[in-house]
Amino acid sequence: MNAAACPCGSGLAYAACCGRYLDGDALPATAELLMRSRYTAYSLDREQYLLDSWHPSTRPHRSAPGEHLPLQWIGLKILKTDAGGLADTKGSVEFVARCKVNGAAQRMHEVSRFVRENGRWYYLDGALNPVTTRK
């Protein structure tokens, strides 16, 4: 998959984008990069990466993102980021992820919260189907 486009939709090759995070060669420097790498991990069924990037205070024992359903992730769109940069310790990312479950198209709209501890970003939790206002 190294020459293929990254599933996160960045336009970069997998190896130059999320692949380096999923393979343990680097840590995402921002909350958005962690969000993108987690989407890629879901699309590639990389459960250990999902668990490792989930904050210990909210992490489940297993991620099971569709364990018993035919699930295919087909697109990610970042709508908004709030903080989550190089100098921040908290941040949020609003996104829409598209998938097919049993062949039926679905959308997941979420605002995910992230925290950075000891230089590493973690997914904390998320609010599904948030009510947002656009300016």
Protein model, in words:
- The chain has helices at 19-22, 31-43, 47-52, and strands at 71-83, 90-101, 104-117, 120-128.
- The termini are far apart.
- 17% of the residues lie in helices and 36% in strands.
- It has one domain (14-128): Nuclear Transport Factor 2, Chain: A (Roll).
- Strands 1-2-3-4 form a 4-stranded antiparallel beta sheet, with helices on one face.
CATH architecture: Roll
Query: What characteristic shape results from the CA principal axes?
Result: globular
Number of helices: 3
> How many β-strand runs?
4
Please outline the major beta sheet.
4 strands, antiparallel
Which ranges are low-confidence, i.e. pLDDT below 50, for 5 or more consecutive residues? none
CATH topology: Nuclear Transport Factor 2, Chain: A
The amount of helix comes to: 10-25%
On the 0 to 100 scale, the average pLDDT is 90
% residues in beta strands? 35-45%
Which CATH class is shown? Alpha Beta
Class computed from helices, strands and strand pairing: alpha+beta
- State the domain count: 1
Q: What order do the helices and strands follow?
A: HHHEEEE
Radius of gyration: 14 Å
N/C terminus separation: 39 Å
Query: Spatial order of the strands in the main sheet?
Result: 1-2-3-4
